Structures are given as structure tokens and as C-alpha cells.
């Protein structure tokens, strides 16, 4: 399953549309006014299905992930000198790759769950997310949102 993640061009807060391979909108992401990033995810029926909240007053960016109203895990940027690194606390998943070039993958026990690639030469942030199993699409989207927010926070990876 492939998804196209596109930031909206004119938006006061972070807003994104996530499209399926057929061009239909799968998810809409709306930024909310808060201390730190707060992104709410809605399905195609405009139902709230997930939230990503940045913890404030942390040394490195850290995001809590909620599916519905239930906390399921977090992702945080690790302190490194040369190569950006993110740690993920969710079902043993890991995030690895080249964050400078925006190409990375989400894995579990070495098996790929998703591949993420940023498309260059667009007016707004645009990513391709290829997910091995469609049931993991929402969680993979949450991880991509967190990494994008961490990189755009001024704490660039």
C-alpha cells in the first residue's frame, strides 16, 4: 500500500492531506494550537482517529502517540553528533535510515514494515510512504509526522 503525504501550501498550523494510490484522501492531519506540536488525524469520514503530541520542556524532541484516546507509544530524537537517530517505543518497532536525505524505514525484528522517502523539488513537504501491511498505515503515518515535526522544530536532524 502506498500513501502520498502532502503538506498543505497555505495553513496557519501544520496541515496535511494523505492520499492513497488512487488519489483519494485517506487521512487529513490538522495542527492544533498548543505548546509544542499537536497534530490530530482524521479518516476520510472526518472522524478523529489519532493524535500526536509533542512533550515540551524536554532536551530533545519527544512525541506521544495516541490512537483514538489511548496512548500507544512514543518516538523521540536521540542525541548524536553526526547522524540523526530516533528511538521508537511501540511493539518493538525501529526506525532506521538516512535522515539527512529523508529516506528511512520502519522495521520490526529486521523485517520492513514501511519505507519512507521525501520527494524533492516540491513547494511543500511531500513524502511517499509504502506500507507492507495496510493495517499498519496509521501508525506509520504517526511516525512520519513525528519525525517531520522534530526536523522542523529548529532542532533539525
Automatic annotation (TrEMBL):
InterPro entries: LOR, LOR_sf, Tubby-like_C. Belongs to the LOR family. Pfam families: LOR. It comes from the Bacteria. Gene3D superfamilies: LURP1-related. Transmembrane segments: none annotated. This is LURP-one-related family protein.
